[in-house]
Design brief:
Elements lengths: L3 H5 L10 H7 L8 H15 L10 H11 L4 H17 L13 H15 L28 H17 L8 H16 L6 H24 L3 H14 L1 H4 L4 H20 L8
Length: 271
């Protein structure tokens, strides 16, 4: 669905503001210059605001232009906007349309999570990306859930993914084995230290790779090509300044993230 026709008239039109319509826009292929980037954001925000037009001009335009400068893909920005609106909806009946400035913290949070998932350093902009041993540790200083909690969540999501019917029956044996290993690891996760904990983390990373490799092997060539194209598009703002090996790793990370997103798969590995 094109958003340009809505911006030409300065209105989103009646009935366009449904949650589903706004979420569907996040699947578009978009890699655009600043003015168009801001129009895409403005149009998406319009839909989230049930058709109310809140212009992205002045300081708001500068803010959104900075998002593009920092390499924030439009789909990542859309997910940040979605996150802000989800929290807004939970507060009860809405009183006024939301300005894009109020979504900034959520957009930056989602961008940080996206970069972490792809193994990209949390640098100020794409030109500062390094590779190999010189790349900063993106997880340093950040505490996540406990290992036991992580394993519990992974088991639940794996079970839900299977129950949804999204996974092919050919993966059943592998899922059973992974689930059993996760259950065993969860029983001994508390109190693990040093080499014992490292061994568990390494095994979780291997199980994660096995799960994703198995699912990718069952996809058609067209689906795999579409995932690869979408992953490269997400990283378009970084490619020119990234070393080839860093881009390759980030591209694989993006494909894995897209697979998890499409199939509601857990991230078995601990980042």
């Amino acid at each position: 669905m094109s958003t340009s026709r809505f911006m030409a008239s300065g209105s989103c039109g009646a009935g366009i503001g449904s949650e589903r319509r706004a979420s569907d826009l996040s699947l578009k292929k978009v890699n655009v210059p600043s003015a168009d980037y801001c129009r895409e954001i403005e149009s998406y925000l319009c839909r989230k605001n049930d058709g109310h037009v809140i212009r992205v001009v002045g300081p708001s335009f500068e803010l959104v232009s900075k998002w593009e400068e920092d390499g924030i893909p439009l789909k990542v920005a859309f997910r940040g906007i979605d996150r802000h609106f989800e929290r807004y909806y939970r507060k009860g009946p809405r009183r006024r349309p939301v300005r894009i400035d109020f979504c900034e913290a959520d957009v930056l949070d989602v961008f940080s999570e996206w970069r972490r998932a792809l193994g990209l350093p949390l640098a100020a902009n794409p030109s500062t990306i390094e590779s190999g041993d010189d790349a900063p540790n993106v997880t340093q200083g950040r505490r996540g859930p406990s290992l036991a909690t992580h394993l519990t969540r992974a088991l639940l999501r794996l079970s839900n993914a299977r129950a949804s019917g999204a996974l092919d029956a050919d993966t059943d044996a592998l899922i059973d084995r992974i689930a059993q290993e996760l259950e065993t690891a969860r029983g001994s996760a508390r109190g693990l230290r040093g080499e014992a904990r490292r061994a568990v983390l390494d095994r979780l990373a291997e199980l994660d790779r096995q799960l994703l490799d198995s699912i990718r092997a069952g996809l058609t060539a067209d689906v795999n090509a579409a995932l690869e194209a979408e992953a490269e598009e997400e990283l378009a703002g970084f490619r020119a300044t990234m070393p080839a090996d860093a881009f390759r790793r980030a591209r694989e990370g993006a494909i894995h993230r897209l697979l998890r997103e499409r199939l509601s798969l857990p991230e078995v590995a601990v980042r």
